[in-house]
Structure prediction request, 471 residues.
Amino acid sequence: MKIILINTPIRNPLRAEIPLKIDREIGALPALGLLSLASFLKERLPEQEVNIIDARIDNMDLEDIRKTVDSIRPDLVGITTMTFSLLDVLDTARVIKGIDSNIKICLGGPHVSIYPKETLSFKEVDFVIQGEGEEAFLHLVNNLNEKTPLFNIRGLGLKDEHGNLHLNGGKQIIEDLDILPDMDIKLINYKKCYSPLGVGKFMMTLQSSRGCPFQRIYCDQQSGKILRKRSIKKIIAEIKEFHTLGIKDIFFVDDLFTLDRKRVFEFCNGILEEKIDVFFKISARVDTIDREMLAMLKKAGCYRIHYGVESGSQRILNRLKKGITIEQIENTFQLTKDAGIDTFAYFMLGCPGETRQEIMATINFALNLNPSYAHFSIATPYPDTELYRMALEEGLFKEDYWRKFAQCPDKEFKTRFWTKELKMEELISLQNYVNRRFYFRVPFLIKELRNIPSWSSGFKKMKMAYKIFTS
Prediction:
């Protein structure tokens, strides 16, 4: 069986929490879900031909995808699906079915887990997988090869011979992540992966855990509430493999890299004992950090930590169920700076109940906190979040408009913000204002000019700066 896994081009995105023209400059990062799935299939079914088309890394359009699929003529195509990419996913599926209607198409990803039935109802879609897809997709391939029934594959959705929709049980969750092999990044053009804020010639993302036990009102729970961790031994082995390919810059995309303190020290000690020359950045909560941990992270090669701050108002932090205090934020940022590690702070404007005065207080808090970089989004109630349910219950949205979009995608669709207190135009104006105020401070610009590692990196940063300035 020939299999192609596709990360579609972005032609009709719905993303709204940051301006689209800025969003397009944030870099090219690999689709880790597809890489994990492809690597798993190659290990378990080495006789199968598995290919990845990552249109975002390779800057491919639909015609490029059509030519590639036509040249391979796969039996099965898997497409990763986010809600904001649904229009492009369906366009890609139609192109593939236009080549050969017998090619089976399976969609997976966060959108499918939220709206499995709606997704399966599209005529171009033969299968859907809810949850983590490695094991379910493996069983699908095996059963298709052996021509055995598919109704016992947990997490799989399919159509019977009469076109009736069937969903087999709930979402797939892999409890033991060590059953997954190291990613075979040679399946993609990994040398094209980059971030304007990276430090190495090549960079790669890596996930050492899945799941998040916290319940912030703006987050969904697609990765589950139970934190599942890969062994440090496997992570170190994967980093060493990256190193042989010239990759020394790694971004851990775990929601909470520092939640398990003992594991952080085990990882850092492993890097130091193996004498691996690597630079990495992580995401963390401010209440999981201490001076000793920061010193060890710095020693092992950590150059930036991403923190979710969200607001400079304790009242709003409580409303968001962040579980942290202003004092913790200030202390942790100071400790991180003292350790010589850069900081990246995430803020959210227009949260439930937030006044304009509180937004201005958050903007001033961000400037005083002075992180190395900052991201200012607008509170957006996304599907399967408590924030979205609040918006429906309080009448902010008159209908379940995300589900309506999932049922009938429309290119004229507009993502809606939380606008109970402030209008959309005012929120966008405040977002543009804070981006310009933060990124065009003279000390910040001087620091960036001094730290540009290469001309190409400098060009990418200047391009992003221009987009911010003209927002």
Observations:
- The radius of gyration is 22 Å.
- Residues 19-25 have pLDDT under 50 and may be disordered.
- The chain has two domains: 2-167, 194-380+417-469.
- The longest strand covers residues 302-310.
